[in-house]
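Duplicate of earlier report; Diacylglycerol kinase input re-posted below.
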Amino acid sequence: MRESSLEKMEGEKRPAPYEGLFADGHLILWTLCSVLLPVFITFWCSLQRSRRQLHRRDIFRKSKHGWRDTDLFSHPTYCCVCAQHILQGAFCDCCGLRVDEGCLKKADKRFQCKEIMLKSDSKALDAMQHHWIRGNVPLCSYCVVCKQQCGSQPKLCDYRCIWCQKTVHDECMKNSLKNEKCDFGEFKNLIIPPGYLTSINQMRKDRKTDYAMLASKLGKQWTPLIILANSRSGTNMGEGLLGEFRILLNPVQVFDVTKTPPVKALQLCTLLPYYSARVLVCGGDGTVGWVLDAVDEMKIKGQEKYIPQVAVLPLGTGNDLSNTLGWGTGYAGEIPVAQVLRNVMEADGIKLDRWKVQVTNKGYYNLRKPKEFTMNNYFSVGPDALMALNFHAHREKAPSLFSSRILNKAVYLFYGTKDCLVQECKDLNKKVELELDGERVELPNLEGIIVLNIGYWGGGCRLWEGMGDETYPLARHDDGLLEVVGVYGSFHCAQIQVKLANPFRIGQAHTVRLILKCSMMPMQVDGEPWAQGPCTVTITHKTHALMLYFSGEQTDDDISSTSDPEDTKETE
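Output:
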């Protein structure tokens, strides 16, 4: 009896098999939920984000505004529609509107962007009124009425004219200001007014080309500026600079050369009075050469009277040409864009020699055409060309890794140090023959030869003048002469750059001829390197370029090495 009762009790306590399976199922279900639910939420958020991005892009594509989205505004910002404080959203890089993502469509319909041309041509040049937008005025701006600071309150307040950049308080805004004629402000001599383009369009329909009479209404000081920026140069600042220039100027004056080649962009000069246009090139020395080649094409087309003067905003790595012209060794946003425009207005015109470099391969005189380059800065064969060649090869493989000017110079230092140990260019004097103005020159035991057109080389070194008690005339970039120097190796180049040594000065000449008798050697023209076999290199004068020289930060030596500004009115 006891045994049967114990068995019965044990049978009652023992769980049924299906109850254990039910508990395991619950555990599996909760595990799946805990794993799949975050995945589903992440997928759903990603889908919604993609839809919002597609919606934004659709608005951007159809809009007349130059919308750009940002994840974080750099200073306190308020939506122009709902007046709420926003951290992220979209902004127009032409008129400066800032809106929340949800208000983007309303803002696009409610607010008008800058017009590059007026709709009506009646009294076109005199019909431009202020175009006011409310809120987000620049810091440290002052009201044109009461002269007190604007934008100091933590809300959407005060007005700014998107053309003349004048600001005014809400309470100071009057009907007279709303209907007042806009004078385009501080940079009126650089801006192409929308009314001017409207009048030009009408004149072309009437087959008239007397633009000077139309431009006379804008004053004798009117020198319209065209911006040509390379958004991929150096530190990748070009994209941001394009927007800042569009806000201060007419957007039709601002071009990204990666989208609109300089040859097409410079055709805007043909709508302007003779010898009036100026161009600001934002990029490295390679971008400047690209633009100057486009200017030469204008000469070939018979457009000499429309050729502009060229200024430089250095965004590249070396920037030796911009340094020679007084624009500095590199721009990193240390001065505002408005100050850059002021510097352009103050700059003086000078000439720059441009040279033809012809490379004829040995043994292929009747089979291949000689390669031709245009030189603005320098030509070299030897260790500095080898460093440039190695740098160029690695940048082509991973361009995103070479967006920092400091990093780029560090890579140059690495390859220079490597060549100090390997000495790939030794015994150059046994491999080449050098002729200056037809006379052969005996060379010492060199590793490199550099032919200079400008004063600076290697990222800021005045190579020809050197250092010490030896007196040499300052190198000029407009005298039709080339300076030829030699270096003993990569270590010697480094010593020259830190002013511990001088180069071996070979001489000056109007024509340089270099014969590479054997083996492959690295060569470069203005930072564009290649490996070259036996050949003959001939450098002759090609033409002059009209440049702008800024003397604001230069020494007396630099100023004395520039040309007389009055000479630049002559063209060749």
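The mean pLDDT is 82.

Merging into the original ticket.
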